[in-house]
């Protein structure tokens, strides 16, 4: 079993920045790739990024490339999502999820999910 807890969400103006954290606990958290997903009201959950077990590979959705960066500190069992130049369309609940050994191609492949943290980008 693995537990994931997100934090760092909040209200920010367009062009601002936030850093989300995903703290993992339980059995062998460092064996899992960690993905970030988001879901806006009335929309399907979409993938934002993923980071490999060792942190040497990352992938990003086109909508966030160049603005978001994911990283991990395995000593702290924590994954981060640095979000810069935020846009109103980034408003959503953000979730982190864990997939054993490698990044899954879709949310259905992830084994564990956090409870989510709200990010609102507005004046």
Task: Summarize the model shown.
By secondary structure, this protein is an all-beta fold. It has strands spanning 2-7, 10-12, 18-26, 32-39, 46-51, 58-60, 68-73, 78-83, 92-100, 112-113, 117-121. It has no helices and eleven strands.
Q: What would you say this structure looks like, in words?
A:
This protein is an all-beta fold. Helices cover 0% and strands 51% of the residues. The chain has no helices and eleven strands. The protein has strands at 2-7, 10-12, 18-26, 32-39, 46-51, 58-60, 68-73, 78-83, 92-100, 112-113, 117-121. The strands form two sheets. Strands 2, 4, 5, 6, 9, 10 and 11 form a seven-stranded mixed β-sheet that branches. It has a four-stranded antiparallel β-sheet with strand order 1-3-8-7, with no helix packed on it. It is globular and about 40 Å long. The mean pLDDT is 96.
